[in-house]
Design brief:
There is one protein chain. By secondary structure, this protein is an alpha+beta fold. 23% of the residues lie in helices and 26% in strands. It is built from 7 helices and 16 strands. β13 and β14 form a beta hairpin. α6 runs antiparallel to α7. The two termini are 24 Å apart. Bound molecules: zinc ion. The site of zinc ion has 6 residues, from loops.
């Protein structure tokens, strides 16, 4: 069970098993207690849907202050629903913000963050090598297998052992609320295990499925070698819990984005 906590004025969830590792700090922020209003109410970090820049900037500062960070410590990425994974140490300032959906680092003080509103935010931490990662996986990223690729990249780049790696899956749209069409189902044609175990055909609507994104990502993590007991999940549906989180689907677009981050102390 993840815990709901408060620091400064921001409220967030944390995984107790990730928290046991003093070398890192992590949080899955809620939408509470920010300064944005209306459909962006209130701790919105997204700018693409039309929130005011000044309010979003203040929300960033609220989060940074709460965790004793500066806003500039958050590594800037442009999420594009792909499967590109970057390593902080390989990039220069001129490369930023970088278009990608996963970031890894062994560098202290660089906060890796993804913004979500239904997509799966995934945090990775290798306890032995002290390397962390963040992944943004909507249906496209999941169909591309980005979670498994991130685990593979940790192995290749840092010699991480999957057995030493912890994975925390944050709040995302649940199977209860995520109906998809044949286009999405077809995108998984090469992932047989995910197709068989994470999709349920809708009883009442022909050609439609309920997709369990969390379980799809969990399957990919296990197939990449992460032990089941090292994978933790918030098990909260963003669409059911619009009181706590933003939900792109439930709000029919035009909503905010909450933040999910991990940083080496
Ligand atoms: Zn739901």
């Amino acid at each position: 069970m993840f815990r709901l906590l408060k620091r400064g004025q921001v409220c967030y969830l944390e995984s107790p098993r990730l928290r046991e590792n003093p070398f890192l700090t992590h949080a899955f922020l809620t939408r509470w207690n920010g300064v944005s209003t209306g459909k962006f109410s209130s701790l919105n970090l997204g700018l693409r849907e039309g929130d005011e820049e000044e309010r979003v900037a203040r929300n960033w500062r609220l989060i940074a202050d709460a965790f004793g960070l500066s806003v500039s410590q958050f590594f800037p990425i442009d999420q594009v629903h792909g499967d590109r994974i970057v390593v902080v140490e390989d990039l220069q300032d001129k490369d930023l913000p970088v278009r990608c959906d996963a970031v890894l680092t062994a560098r202290r003080g660089v906060a890796l963050a993804v913004k979500t509103a239904d997509c799966v935010p995934l945090l990775l931490a290798d306890r032995e090598k002290q390397v962390v990662g963040v992944v943004h996986a909507g249906w496209r990223g999941t169909a591309l297998g980005i979670a498994g690729k991130a685990v593979k990249a940790l192995k290749e780049r840092y010699s991480s052992k999957p057995g030493d790696t912890l994975a925390a899956i944050g709040p995302a749209v649940g199977v209860c609320c995520y109906q998809v069409d044949g286009k999405v189902f077809d995108a998984f044609k090469r992932s047989v295990s995910v197709r068989e175990r994470a999709f349920r055909a809708c009883q009442d609507v022909e050609g439609r499925w309920m997709l369990d994104l969390e379980s799809a990502n969990r399957i990919q993590l296990v197939e990449a070698g992460i032990p089941r007991e090292n994978i933790f999940s918030a098990a909260l549906c963003t669409s059911c819990r619009r009181d706590l989180f933003f939900s792109h689907r439930a709000e029919k677009g035009g909503t905010g984005r909450h933040l999910n981050f991990i940083v080496l102390n």
